Amino acid sequence: MSGAAIGIGSSGASVKRSQKTQSVLIHVVLIAGGIIVMIPLAWMLSTSLKPPHQITKFPPIWIPDPFVWSNYVRAVTIFPVSFLVFIRNSMYMSLMITLGTVLSNAVVAFAFARLSFRGSRVLFIIVLSTMMLPQQVTMIPLFILFSKFGWINTYNPLIVPHFFANAYFVFLLRQFYTTIPRELDDAARIDGCGVIGLFLRILLPLSKPALGITAIFAFTWAWNEFLGPLIYLSRMETFPLAIALSFLRAAHGVLWSELMVVSFIAMLPPVLLFFVAQKHYIQGIVITGVKG
Amino acid sequence: MSAQAQSGRTPLSRFFSSSVWTRRTLKQKEELIAYLLVSPWVIGFLAFILGPMLTSLGLSFTETDLFTLEFVGFENYTKLLSFDTTRTLFWTTLYNTAYYVFLSIPLTITAGFFIATLLNQNISGQPTYRVVYYLPAVIPGIATSLLWLWLFQPEFGLINWALSLVGIEGPRWLFDRSTAKMALVLMSVWGAGSNMLIFLAGLQGIPTELYEAATIDGAGIWRRFRSITIPMISPTLFFVVVTQIIWSSQVFTNVYVMTEGKGGPANATLMMVLYLYQVAFRQYRMGYASAYAWIFFLILLVFTLLLFRSSKAWVYYETEIGGQRS
Hints:
The complex is a heterodimer. Chain A is mainly α. Helix content of chain A is 74%, strand content 0%. Chain A is flat. Chain B folds into 2 domains: 2-59, no CATH class; 78-325, Orthogonal Bundle (MetI-like fold), CATH 1.10.3720.10. Chain B has helices at 2-7, 11-59, 75-80, 90-119, 126-138, 141-151, 158-165, 180-189, 193-204, 208-216, 221-248, 253-258, 272-282, 286-314, 319-325; strands at residues 62-64, 69-71. In chain B, a hairpin with a 4-residue loop joins strand 1 (62-64) and strand 2 (69-71). In chain B, helix 4 packs antiparallel against helix 11 and helix 11 runs antiparallel to helix 14. Chain B is globular. The two termini of chain B are 28 Å apart. Chains A and B meet through helix 1, helix 4, helix 5, helix 6 and helix 11 of A and helix 2, helix 4, helix 5, helix 6 and helix 7 of B.
């Protein structure tokens, strides 16, 4: 009896010990991988603060000596247009796209999640199938159309389509709405709520987290957008940050410090947003399986 | 419909049908509101997706810049798909894109899945690891491209320095046609964190009872992995493969920035979307570009359909989940 108990006890201890070595091993692998992921970013920061002669040192110098903070000033004043203009343009574009995305998708997803109408299944399948569509196949006619509107060198071609819903966000929000119990709908209806009241007073307030996720994703994608602005914007004072950076690369391809400075500035908004809202971020990815 | 057909029969049924009819007006009213609410998407679909798609198909049989338009029949297609490589760059771009997609997808998926498996072992500090590994995925493509351009720099770049530490003389990466595509592939692995998060969500959805039951039945780690993890994760894997093929075949920002829009050296990194951009927006050959865009679309469509077909053989759907997913 006691022998058996000891036997169980000792095997339990060895299982525990082997689990411990296993988890240490996993930590070692994860930390090593994490360092490899972070090195490029450390290198970016390091380069952005180096004096010119240290940039091309081989083997590389990791800690700049001295720290040349003036690189930051020089990098943002290298453009013929004020750097603030690019930031303002990027902000304007991203915020307008975010606004359009949240408004239109909240409404459309509500109809798909809660209202029954003829053809809703077929329509939803069409919505989902457009996720698979590469945007390139619509790019040329849209360019011709928008140029006929006189929208070249404006932000309209980049913003306006986002006011007409998007498959990813319809899917994300619909998935979220369906987790809100239908009993709430029934209760609201008994209290005399119409469809619109149901949406405004019940579903919308309860789905703030999902709307937040939508806003975060929309902003990040808009901020990182490249091909669209490249096609539609050709005057420098209309450039968003991304296109201004690619201009700098073309004009001064070897000014590595300056390129790293502006890259660092360009990545700050989405990265900070990610840090602040990482829980929402991860939740959004779990809901849709779509990357941010 | 059937209620109206019945309504003409007897006074009694007419009486009933009138109440049915008023209820239907309420229902119809709701239906009308529903259509109103989905109308932004419907309008957007017609104006920004279906309309342009059909227009682009039409344009593909013409030669047009923004001002003139001339019908040319199938000429764009025959020129594009001609095997005379002095006339078309289609095969070069197809090869480059396929090379990139089929190397980067297995690498990013393996890396993402591997990290997710490790993170799923009840590890402490999981949120921190998640943030670290996911971070590259939120960085704008332009910043990533400039950073990696610098890392791949042949003389002073960090990568060749790291290689020199282990006694390898690094190649000239983006300046050498034999390594340029590989540089783009390696760079894509840095963003494997987005796959990692999706896999992690999938792994965490596998009920632990399955593992417990298998352990009691004497299944070892490998057996549990093969008989539980792999089938249970296969829907997630399928989703990742499909979306990754669609997204990574559209690779553009990296190549555009790193090769200054040229796809060099010697067209070694001329990807399909980059070439499409050049033809449409540098040379303004909109008809030719439309034909090219449609071929690109059809290739992706065939691939996606084949994947969906094959999924029956290798993707495991639990019956009740399978019902919900459709």
